[in-house]
Amino acid sequence: MENTPKRKQRNKPGVVLFTAVAVMLMLSILLTATVSYVSVNRTKTNDNYKSKQAYLTASSTLESFINQIQTDTAPTNDPTAKAQQKKAIDNLKKLASANSGKGTTTNVSYNGSNGKSDNIGTTKITVAQEGTSVANIVVTCETTYLGKTEKVAAHISTQSVTKPAEYTNTIELVGNGGAGYDNLNVIGDMAGINNTTGKVYRFTNNTSIYGSYLMYGSLEVSTQPLIMLKPSLVDEKQGSTVTISENLDVSNEFHINSTMARADGYNYVNIGQKLSTSNHMDVGSSGFDVDLFCCEANIGGNDYTQYGNFYVYKGAGAYNGDATFGAAGQTINGSLYVEGDLNVTKSLKVTGSVYVTGTITGKDKIVCTASNIHEGAVLSKAGRDAKPQIPVSADAYVYYPEDFFMSNDTNVTTISDQYQAFYDGSNTKTFNTFASDWTNVDYTLTELIDLTGTGAKTPVTSRYKLRITSSCTWASDLSFNDYGNGSRILVDVSDSSGDIVIRLQNGLNLGAEWSPVIVVRNRSTIIDTTTGDRKYNCYFVSDSGSAITLNGIDSVTGKSQHSGSSACNYSFKGLKVFDYDTYVRMFDSSVLNNTKGNPGLPQSGFVLNPTSVDVAGSYRPKNSSIIFLFGENTTLNATDQSFFQGSFYSPQAIVNIATSGLGGLVVTDSAGGKMTVQCCAVGVVIANSFGNANTAFYVYTKPSTTSVMQNAKGGKDDSAFGYTLDRYDHY
Q1: CA separation for the pair 688, 215 (Å, rounded)
Q2: Which residues, 6+ apart, have CB-to-CB distance to 604 below 8 Å?
C-alpha cells in the first residue's frame, strides 16, 4: 500500500483472545451480518472541512466497531458464552469470505442526540478477506460527506487455537475417595479436585506442603504436619493459600506459616465449614500474617497462636458463624470477627479489635483494649475482610488417556497411531529388538553442553547399555545378565523418531536386582516459539488394549466417556527415570561413564530450581517432555529408591510411589534458599488415588505444552477464539 504524507497510519498492537462473548450491539453485527445504528461522538463532527468531516466519521465508526467488540469480550467459563464466541468469529469469517473473498458491504446510519438518524455522511462498512486466507480480514469504513470521500481500515488476524491445560499442582487427586498421607512432602501446590462431599484426608508424621493446598472434603491432622505458604511455582508474583471445603480437625500440632508478607489475594486459610482444635495450632508468624476464615470455630486443648485476622462467618445449613475459644493458651495477633455468638471460656488475647454481631459470653476473659471490643457489630465483609470464595469445582478434565490412545481427532491426540500399532501387528518392537542391533548396544554419546549457564559449552560424554530410537514395548524379554544391575537405557527422541511411545507390557514386574535407569534425551529441532518446548515427546503408556470405545462427550458433565479399557498392574523396584539435560548436570563423569549401577547421590554443587525464575548457581529444567499415561484401573507400585522425572496423567489410575527416592538432592526457592531432600519425583502427579511412604519429597515441574496433556482439560471443544488487531490504516 502506498503511504503518502496525507495518509495517517495508526498502529494499535494488541491481542484479544476470546474466552467469552457477551452478544451486545457490535457483536450482533457479526452474528446477523447487518449494521444498523452506530453511536459516534458528535463533537468530532463539527468541522467545516468536508474531507475532515468524512475522515472523522469513518474513523469514529470503525473504532466504535472494533472497540465495542473488545469491550464486550470479558473472560468467562460459561459454556453458552463460549458458543456465542465461536459463532461470532465464524460469522465474521463468513462475511469476509462472501463473494469469493471480496466480502460483505453494509450501509450505516447514525444516532443523533434526539434519537433520530443524523445526516453526517454516507458510510459503508465492508468486511472482506485480505489475501487468500479467511484468517486475515480487513474491515473498511468508507464515508462520503458532501462529495468528499475518506476511507479507513482495520486489519485483523483471526485465530482459533486450542486452549492448553494448566498444571499448577505437584500432586493432584481426581478420585472421590479420601486419603491418608504419611511423611508426604510436596514442593509446590497440592489439590484434591473431586467435589464429592464427605471425603476425609489425613495428614500424619510430618507431612509438609511448601505451596498452596486446595481440597474438597475434610482434613484431619494428627501428627505435626506443616503447610508453608510460598510464592507460586507457576508465577512467582502470586502468593499461596489453603482452601478446605468442609472441616479442619486438628488433634495434634499443625503449623501453617508463610515466607511472604500478607497482601490481598493470598496468605489465608479458608475453611468451608468448621475448625476444631484439641492441640497446638500455629497460623502465621511475626511479620508474615496469615488470615483464617471458617463458618464455625471450636478452639480447645492446648495452644492456639495466630498472626493475622480470624474470621467466623455464617455458612450454609447449620453453620451460624459461632465461635468458642477454650484453649489453654490462645492469642490472635490481629483482629477477631464473629458473625454469630462468641463464647470465651479461657483467656483469649487479641492485639487488634473484636467484632461480634451476636452476643459475647465471657467478655471478661478477652485480653484486649476495652474500647476495641464491639458487641452487636455490623461486619463489612469487604476488602481484606471479605471471605474468599471456595470454587464450586476445580478445572475438570475432559479427555483421558484412553482418548489419547484411540481418538482419530488430531486436535485431541498425536499418539494414537503409535499406540494402536502395538495392537494391529504393525509394531512388534520391544526393548530386546534394539538390543539385537549392535549400533544401539554399549552406546556412547558425546555432546557440547552449556553446564554453567554462561553460554560456554564443554563436551560431555555419557554411556548407555542400550539405546531406544523409536516406539516399542517394554517387555520382560531382556537378558538379566546383560541388562540387570541398573543398566542405563537411553531413549533418543529426534525429528526422525517423532513422538516415542513406550508401551509397558501388562504385568511388567522388575525387582531391585534390575533397577533400570532410563534417560530420555529430546533433540527434536521444531520448537514452540512461545514456550520453548520441543515438538516431540516421550510417552510411557499402559497396556490398556485396543478394545477401548470412545462414547463421546457426556452432555451433563462435559467429559469424554469411554469403556473397554483393560486393567494393568506394574511393579518396579529401584526404577529411575531422568531427563537427559538434568542427568548430565546432576552427575559427574564417574557416573556418566558407567553403563550400569545405581547412580547414587547428585554431585556436589548441583542445585535443582523448580521455580519460574532463574536463580544463580542452579539448574532450572525445561517443561518435562516425559509423560506417563496410565488408563483406567491401572496400578503402579514403585519402591526401593525409585525416582521419576516426568509427569503422570492417570486420572482413573492408582499411583503408589512408596519410596525414599533419590537422596541428597538440593532444591532452591526463588530467593536462593536451599533445602536438601530425598526426592521421589520431579514433575506433576495426577491420579485417581495416590500412595506414598517414607520421608520423601515431590517437586513441581510442569509438563511440556506440546504434549497431549495440553488437551486434557478441553482440547478442541474448549478452544480460545479471537483475533489480533494488527493495525489501522487511513487511505
Answers
A1: 14
A2: none
